[in-house]
């Protein structure tokens, strides 16, 4: 569904049959996906699934072995125009600690042909009180907000956000979600990688779950939940997991996916297990079922 890359529902990124093999591992093994303008697409997967390799190839930081990448329906490689239209959430450790917040924003602005107004960016990310503060004196959360702000400094059409809310408290995370959704509503295509499944569920239009270099499933969060066949999930302490055949154990908890909730609850109660929770399945449950791993 590639069109000219300039209109509302245009494809801003198309990846076809991408491969990257290292001597001992097929890090990316023939994956394809696309991102449209005004869409948030999440790439999820357990450690080592191939997410970073995929994203860094697209960003032009690593070479691919095979496959095609198309940016904005027009470009096959990261040229100057692509660089000007792509935003990346830099990790906080790539900051210059002695620069102030406004100096940092100005530095990043200078790398691009066009950029957002510094004052506007600072307001959006609620960094007004820290404009003159050196990076070394920011809290972890403030640094993280600045890192995300810098991804939008050039008013990009395609944005890569790698763990954008890591280390933020729940309130600050929700604030940042609102900001990200606002940018999405302006038509930016956003690629999100996150270890927070609730974040992916809240924000994503489409989710691609990777494991061992492959995309093992794709769809909207609700589509993935519906097609997973999960009806309800019962969470209970891991020490009682032997009561059922098909439970997933992750940390101190066991997760039973069942269509027969009543029988499962009866079994737990008959075994004097009363500290359980019954709930609707989430994206995290789909992830657990598909990969057998809890993301952390
Ligand atoms: P994480 O969530 O832990 O960041 P990931 O999904 O981003 O994981 P990648 O970093 O893309 O995974 O790694 C995919 C696989 O490729 C892993 O098995 C990793 O060990 C391997 N790999 C990555 N980079 C290299 C490299 N430069 N040389 C050899 N193997 C590599």
Q: What is the ordering of alpha helices and beta strands?
A: EEEHEHEHHHEHEHEEHEEEHEH
Write out the CATH superfamily name of the largest domain. Answer: P-loop containing nucleotide triphosphate hydrolases
How confident overall, as mean pLDDT? Answer: 91
Number of helices: 10
CATH class of the largest domain: Alpha Beta
- Fraction of residues in helix: 25-40%
SS-based class: alpha/beta
Give me the Rg, rounded: 21 Å
> What is the CATH-assigned architecture of the largest domain?
3-Layer(aba) Sandwich
Low-confidence stretches: 1-8
At the fold tier of CATH, the topology name of the largest domain is Rossmann fold
Give the total of domains: 2
What fraction strand? 25-35%
Overall number of strands: 13
Strand order of the largest sheet: 5-6-7-3-8-9
Ions, cofactors and other ligands present here are:
adenosine-5'-triphosphate
The rounded distance between the terminal residues' Cα atoms is 34 Å
Judging from the principal axes of the Cα atoms, what is the shape?
globular
Largest sheet: 6 strands, mixed
